[in-house]
Amino acid sequence: MRIYLSGHEYRYAVEQMLLTLFPGERPEYPAGEPEGERLEVALHRAAVYTTASCALLRGGKRFRGTARAKNSALTDRITTERICQRLVKNAMYRAALASGLRRPVWGALTGVRPGKVLLPLIRANGEAEALVRLERDYDVSPERAALCLDAARHTLAAADSLEGRDVCLYVGIPFCPTRCAYCSFVSQSVEKSMKLIEPFLDALLREIEATGEQARRLGLRPVAVYFGGGTPTTLSPEQLERVCAKLESCFELSALREYTVEAGRPDTITAEKLAVLRAHGVDRVSVNPQSMSDAVLEAIGRRHSAADIVAALETVRAVGGFAVNMDLIAGLPGDSAEGFRATLETVLALAPENVTVHTLSLKRGSRILAEGTPLPGAEEVGEMLDFASARLRAEGYGPYYLYRQKFMSGGFENVGWTREGCVNLYNICIMEELCSILAMGAGGSTKLIRHDGGRNLRFIAPKYPLEYIQGIDGVCAEKEQIGTFYRESGELEE
Ligand code: SF4
């Protein structure tokens, strides 16, 4: 899409809105006089109002949208930037609606974390007013606004429960039994990379030591551990034992509130592995069917059946002591609203403590995208999500965290649902940036959070197992940044 800006240079805001409204379009900024199908986005400051206007030229027609704010509201530089960017986005949004675009459920809200907009509104104005503003200023649908508010309550409760030294630990194990068709992670199937597992573990144990040393020196207090990947239970019982034991010996884990291991694929779950995890205090596992339709599972390249999931759940419950999360995806190839309903009913019958309902998001690197596989349309995906929301609420689940992704079917969202008292703190912390995450393992993204509005620090380990193994000296040396960050940011001062 050709884009012409005048009176401002808010390219990022314009591109975010372009992605929300027209996900297939890429921005271009040609020089010269405006021509062809295009967006003209202007910002003009007059005596009383600052006004953004957008003209969308499509199919030989011109559609207009405007948004304005009183100059008296533009108090300081940061507020002015924020308000002007919102005006620009709203003008684009209105022009797109005028052109006949179906109203998106999240309205004019862009970005990954709706909570980032709602939480400051709640803190400043209280819940009722915040909700009104979310619906009025951003045109968010009442259902999505309510969803966001419910999740925000959990965020606020989690934030209140944390102290300055609290951190979460993440351990990334980048191996899976086979690779799923929709996967865009770097996970390697063990069929291809079995020989890398042992050298990877040697490197990982070194990184755990280096990270633990920093954490102990600074007196950081892990409150949650999360093993992700990949599928960590691809490791053998003995390998899991080694990683868990190392973590215990390197970190002070006495304040730990939860310990999660993703056991996404039922073909990796055995009673022996679960017993090892329990012995180390793991109290939550994620068993992820994605769908309970065998035809859909086959279409997405999961080499297991729905019956395998049920059997895996039986094993988990027989070992005992675990809260269970189950991930589902709305919008998978070969699925339908009816099929998704049946999947959800089967999952509810298994009574997991958490259900995470994702919307299919296809990124480059996934096989589905490469092969052009047909998918359910946005309307059908919307039906699946509406059904999930109503049914989960009726069964006593509530939303506790949510986020959106780029390239998500219908511009919808991913939502973590929980039974009362079973929230996963790690998911809230990482999504809402409530505390630092110390990550270890391939692709591990360490994020050090400042609560004073200063700049957070993020660094990421190499993604691919071989790269990670070869780069482990640098990965360990990078851990020094944790000490530097905490010393310089003053985050640990009382
Ligand atoms: S289980 Fe998850 S990480 Fe592994 S291949 Fe499938 S989608 Fe990717």
Task: Tell me what the structure shows.
It is a single chain. By secondary structure, the chain is α/β, with parallel strands linked by helices. The chain folds into two domains: 101 residues, Double Stranded RNA Binding Domain; 320 residues, pyruvate-formate lyase- activating enzyme (Alpha-Beta Horseshoe). Helix content is 43%, strand content 21%. A nine-stranded mixed β-sheet has the order 13-14-12-11-10-9-8-5-15, with helices on both faces. Strand 11, helix 12 and strand 12 form a beta-alpha-beta unit. The chain is globular, with a radius of gyration of 24 Å. The termini are far apart. The model has no long low-confidence stretch (mean pLDDT 93). The site of iron/sulfur cluster (SF4) has 11 residues, from loops.
What's a quick, concise take on this entry?
The chain is of the alpha/beta class and 494 residues long. It has helices at 11-21, 77-98, 114-125, 127-138, 142-161, 190-193, 197-218, 237-250, 271-279, 294-299, 306-319, 337-349, 367-371, 378-394, 425-432, 465-470, 472-477, 480-489, and strands at residues 2-6, 38-45, 49-58, 61-70, 166-173, 175-176, 188-189, 221-229, 258-262, 284-286, 323-330, 354-359, 397-403, 414-419, 436-441, 445-448, 457-460.
Give the arrangement of secondary structure elements.
Layout: E1 2-6, H1 11-21, E2 38-45, E3 49-58, E4 61-70, H2 77-98, H3 114-125, H4 127-138, H5 142-161, E5 166-173, E6 175-176, E7 188-189, H6 190-193, H7 197-218, E8 221-229, H8 237-250, E9 258-262, H9 271-279, E10 284-286, H10 294-299, H11 306-319, E11 323-330, H12 337-349, E12 354-359, H13 367-371, H14 378-394, E13 397-403, E14 414-419, H15 425-432, E15 436-441, E16 445-448, E17 457-460, H16 465-470, H17 472-477, H18 480-489
Helix pairs in contact: 1-2, 3-4, 3-5, 4-5, 5-15, 7-8, 7-18, 8-9, 9-11, 12-14
The chain binds iron/sulfur cluster.
